[in-house]
Amino acid sequence: MVEQMQISAATSLSNATLCDLPESVKIPTYDRAKLTAGIVHIGVGNFHRAHQAWYLHRLMQQGQAHEWAIVGAGVREFDEAQRLKMAAQDFLTTLLELSSKGRAVEVVGSMIDYVPIESDNGALIAQMARPEIKIVALTVTEGGYYIDPVSKAFDLNHPDIVYDAAHPAEPKTAFGAMIMALRLRRDSGVGPFTCQSCDNLQGNGTILRQVVVALAGLSDLDLADWIAAECSFPNSMVDCIVPATNAKERSLVYDLGILDAVPVTHEAFRQWVIEDDFCAGRPNWDEAGAIFSDKVHDFETMKIRILNGGHQIIAGVGEVLSLITIADCMAHEPVAKLFRKLAHEEIAPFLKPVAGVTPQDYIGIIEQRFANPHIFDTTRRVAFDASSRHPGFIIPSIREGLKAGTPVEGLALVSALWARMCYGVREDGSVIEPNDPQWDSLHKTAIAARETPAVWLAQTQFYGDLRQNESFAQAFETWLQKIWRLGVEATLDEYLSH
Fold first, then answer.
1. What pLDDT, on the 0 to 100 scale, is given for residue 2?
2. Which stretch of DSSP H or E encloses residue 103?
3. In whole angstroms, what is the distance from residue 490 CA to residue 322 CA?
4. Fold of 301-496
5. Which residues of the chain have pLDDT under 50?
């Protein structure tokens, strides 16, 4: 009833109603009718719209980059629902910044279209083949690149990849669609576009190059060589905490007098560090606050190990302890101490300062961001797809510690807590619903690991040869046994007492 009243009092978001919105709402000052497309972005989720789309919007507010507008795209059936919602409001997005200073609301208008979702990706291919498209960017999640988490090799045997190799003109994947578009551009003389990953992957541009060139080579070696020689794949680091949008987030926007079907809430922090390697030009994102640097790796290593790794440290234990949000996790003293102790003792020693910020300084920054009670970022969201995130965010720190001969006790505990979460029952007896593409396998293994901990580390697709490291394997086994014998909180207390 309350929500219905909010909706009835709100103004439906569209180009025509922008001037009817409350004065507190920042709206585009540029003429959206005069924008032309320069970027196709595949994966138009909350993060993209709060991050990359915002940087471009900010440039447009300054009178720049009006020829670089975004055309959204997706390759999965569920993307169509998002497309229809956005089309109904002229591809506008309401961004609501939540911080201790209050709320700030802004309507972003840098997206001007969204390609229809088709099984053969024909419309997407045609859009990317247009001469005015200079950049094709992606936000398709860490697990969306068909990369084996242990070997880091491209999975040539995945059914989607096998299909695209056999049907290059009617591909299923975003990468197959990019390759077909590049074939058309080469054959017509249009030339290449920059392939830009915006995902939380270390060396995301390098990984994207690996995937695109390898997939192209399965059907056309000459095309693969042309792509490798002519296209650019800049590495980048992206950072902003952006929760999923649920009824609570929509209600906050309704309260402001805006009826937006797909609003986005976010923290008062953004960072984007990019290699300046663009084969067909680029917007001046640096004038909107982005950083162009040849040291992206140092930035991303610190961020991935401390922020993304920190998320995995607290999300697994948070789920087991029924802590609803990341802020709740940080308000739980033992969980907050777990993050702090681990980050300082087992992660930070292997990181380099960047832009005058030491790893220790960065830990403090992340702690404050995690603890922001105004960001309703659910523990469940952060814990999602840990099978893709642990190999990239946690296990590299384990390997560095073992190589250096430094303690990995806390990181072994994190792996044990992940196994405990995948058991599927919280300590209060409530059920943890499936929360990973590989949940069935993880759940079965977690059940077996309760009696035989070693079977968890036998998942070589995540851990590689780590089970053969006696010190790590023993630490993991000890912690998992203690978790089941003593309970999570008592186990945390034991770890924190050392």
1. 45
2. strand 102-108
3. 16
4. N-(1-d-carboxylethyl)-l-norvaline Dehydrogenase; domain 2 (1.10.1040)
5. 1-2, 5
